[in-house]
């Protein structure tokens, strides 16, 4: 993980410390309806050796629901390779390629994907010192916020050819997850498929007994310009109304205001348990074939609506367990 596109290096975490780390990718079919989401994670409890997991979900809006699998291995199968992001067994993620497999609970998946794109990494935290500070305890960046995928994905023997699918690669790490979080991503918007992408992460963190308001950090690339959205200085202008399967939000930036909504039907979501190193846990609901609409207002320009049907990602992390989305039968941590 020596690449400049990443900040953390999990072998350097002290044995007494708790730690989690995640590299994930998402690719959706042009025009929407199908998508793949793959996550590589490290989980380490204080005083213990880390474990590593591969998470895979295939989304198809024409099917009854997502198909998912998660495989967990020990420390001996985990590596932070030079020039790459992470290796778990024979599976690896590196700049330009994701190759791997996972099998558990009677479900098997394989993938061989290449990706390309020249977009600079998006560091969600606006100041470099925030990546060194103890708070926030979750760090987040997108090494590749807008790329194009080609290759193959196989789920239970069915092979899907992928060519020119828009997507991204993300990375987060820390001592614990935010108390509540939202992640959203969209690329390949109707009528404007090239050069437009949106990547946003919003979180509520706990400080002592108090849970702070939503803080959003996002980026919208449009018309050859990247607009940073949100930040702690714009908390009062940030609006969030979230549900397990949908979210409405407002994020503002310099000379820009984005009003958005994202969501899908409940049966298009996959549910997972995300464990904190200290022993707590969240339920995380993810849909990578969601609908997204963004109303973009820029100073001196008429408002513009961007629409993406069946190709956006929406993830909500929460403490609640009564959301109605079945969890996958795989423990975490």
Break the fold down into its secondary structure elements and pairings:
Layout: E1 19-28, E2 34-44, E3 51-60, E4 67-73, E5 78-79, E6 86-88, E7 91-94, E8 97-104, E9 107-116, E10 122-123, E11 138-155, E12 158-174, E13 180-189, E14 192-204, E15 206-207, E16 210-211, E17 215-222, E18 225-230, E19 239-243, E20 246-253, E21 256-263, E22 270-275, E23 281-298, E24 304-318
Structure commentary:
This protein is 0% helix and 61% strand. It is built from no helices and 24 strands. The two termini are 22 Å apart. The radius of gyration is 18 Å and the shape is globular. Mean pLDDT is 93; it is low at 1-11. Strands 1, 2, 3, 4, 5, 6, 7, 8, 9, 10, 11 and 12 form a twelve-stranded antiparallel sheet that branches. Strands 13, 14, 17, 18, 19, 20, 21, 22, 23 and 24 form a ten-stranded antiparallel sheet that branches. The protein is mainly beta and 333 residues long. The protein has one domain (19-318).
